[in-house]
TrEMBL record:
The keyword DNA-binding does not apply. SMART domains: AAA. Keywords: ATP-binding, Cell inner membrane, Cell membrane, Membrane, Nucleotide-binding, Transport. It comes from Caballeronia udeis. This is Oligopeptide/dipeptide ABC transporter ATP-binding protein.
Length: 339
């Protein structure tokens, strides 16, 4: 039987648009998202900038309330938690942020940064708290010698290790990692990713790993969800989504990833998207991707919103042509396919 830690049902998050005036508009940042996360697994979340990944992460991380929908965590609905429940949840759910400098208080020593959560939650204080902090820092590859120093004295990679130690010192069950390596040098990225994977094994955590680099997400994820304009348009195992993408948006994202094999790389066709991401204030009608989809069939795609279709073994795609696939001859891309 599946051991589900987190279940998200029709989760929606809208922000009031600034300067909305009389006819207040809303930013549809996350729209009716559904998925489940098994205990101990990593779900990767990809999609271009502005498509709602961080908002979804913040809502799941209890940093922002959902507008509607349900979040079931460890068997109970946490969408409308009381203050006391929220406090307890903040111990079990943690977020690791992209910018390891901005998320660490520059006026606090590393000791205070890592000990603070233990104190705040009444788990330990004094020498005991310090010992727990040092054990966590050790797991993150840092020694006791860092305790009296300040964040500015460390490199980006080391700061991210400190941020990870702070987030994980409470032994959370669920961790949202929001582009945790995007701000780091490529040479450091692999080290931090491997650290996150080792810690997951060690502490048995479940991850939502947000990224825009398809190769990084592929490396860490068991399953992958692809987001476009606030919706999850495709979700499946890493093999299903990367090996047999069934949504045109996923195909486009994958077409821009270089392939290590030179022969395959020569044959790779990069697909260019028309125009910019539409505004989440007024997403397109029908399929939200229809204004940029190289395979869109009008008027079907501009008028009818595609349902989420299971194309096999839990691999879901929200495209009218998910079952037959858009590579068949009837659905040749009519425009820009560039090399
Ligand atoms: N606090 C906020 N208030 C209003 N709009 C927001 C807020 N946070 C994010 N947005 C908007 O929501 C959309 C999704 O943003 P975000 O979740 O940051 O996307 P991503 O992480 O995929 O880049 C964007 O259009 C963004 O401008
Ligand atoms: S439903 Fe139509 S527009 Fe949307 S992704 Fe599929 S083919 Fe493209
Ligand atoms: Mg983001």
């Amino acid at each position: 039987m599946k051991d589900i830690l987190l279940e998200v049902i029709s989760l929606t998050k809208r922000y009031p648009a600034s300067g909305g005036g009389f006819r207040a508009q809303t930013v549809k940042a996350v729209e009716s998202v559904n998925f489940q996360l098994q205990r101990g697994e990593t779900l990767g979340l990809i999609g271009e900038s502005g498509c709602g990944k961080s908002t979804l992460g913040r809502v799941l991380g209890q940093l922002a309330p959902a507008t509607s929908g349900q979040i079931r965590f460890d068997g109970r609905d946490i969408s409308k938690s009381s203050r006391r429940e929220l406090r307890e949840l903040r111990q079990q759910i943690q977020i690791i942020f992209q910018d390891p400098y901005g998320s660490l208080n520059p006026r606090m020593t590393i000791r205070d940064i890592v000990v603070e959560p233990l104190r705040n939650f009444g788990i330990a204080r004094g020498v005991e708290a310090e010992n727990i902090a040092v054990r966590m820092l050790n797991l993150c590859g840092l020694g006791r010698s860092v305790l009296d120093r300040y964040p500015r004295e460390f490199s980006g990679g080391q700061r991210q290790r400190i941020g990870i130690a702070r987030a994980l010192v409470l032994k959370p069950k669920f961790v949202v990692a929001d582009e945790p390596v995007s701000a780091l040098d490529v040479s450091i990225q692999a080290q931090v990713i491997n650290l996150l994977k080792d810690l997951q094994r060690e502490l048995g955590m479940t991850y939502l790993f947000i990224g825009h680099d398809m190769a990084v997400v592929k490396h860490v994820s068991d399953r992958v969800a692809v987001m476009y304009l606030g919706r999850v348009v495709e979700i499946g195992t890493m093999q299903q989504v990367y090996g047999n993408p069934r949504h045109p948006y996923t195909k486009v994202l994958l077409s821009s990833v270089p392939i290590p094999d030179p022969e395959q790389e020569r044959q790779r066709t990069s697909i260019t998207l028309k125009g910019a991401l539409p505004s989440p204030l007024s997403p397109p009608s029908g399929c939200p991707f229809h204004t940029r989809c190289p395979w869109a069939q009008l008027p079907l795609c501009s008028t009818v919103e595609p349902a989420s279709i299971d194309v096999g073994e839990g691999h879901l795609s929200s495209c009218h042509f998910a079952v037959e696939g858009v590579t068949t001859t009837q659905h040749k891309p009519p425009f820009p396919v560039t090399k």
